[in-house]
Amino acid sequence: MMNLNQETMQEVVAEAFDRTESLRWQMAITRAAQELESNPFMHYDGHAVIILRESNEIYSANGTCQCKAFEFGKPCWHRAAARLITRYNERSSH
Ligand SMILES: [Zn+2]
């Protein structure tokens, strides 16, 4: 689980949500926000969000991902999480 300022993250999530009109991306963003809050098997290495899955697969998401959704050109919450963290860090460093 990542140690994030919930207030800042909520602002970042709301902004990301407003920036897309894609329902799939909005769903991915919602899921990403939930996972960032509660998933103990993910962390940020300064470049990508690393997600360890039950199947022992590891997803490393920034602009790309290793999951099926990405393979089929669909939005995935892994990449949404990576974008959220990037924006969160930008905001936190100002
Ligand atoms: Zn993915």
Walk me through the structure.
By secondary structure, the protein is mainly α. It is built from four helices and three strands; from the N terminus they run H-H-E-E-E-H-H. The protein has a three-stranded antiparallel sheet with strand order 1-2-3, covered by helices on one side. The protein is globular. The structure holds zinc ion. Residues 59, 61, 65, 67, 69-70, 76, 78-79 line the site of zinc ion (ZN).
What percentage of the residues does DSSP assign to strands (E)? 5-15%
Number of helices: 4
Mean of residue pLDDT values: 93
Category by helix and strand content: mainly alpha
Q: Largest sheet, order of strands side by side?
A: 1-2-3
Q: Which spans of ≥5 residues are poorly predicted at pLDDT below 50?
A: none
User: Gyration radius, to the nearest Å?
Assistant: 12 Å
Number of strands: 3
Main sheet, how many strands, which sense, barrel? Answer: 3 strands, antiparallel
Order of helices and strands: HHEEEHH
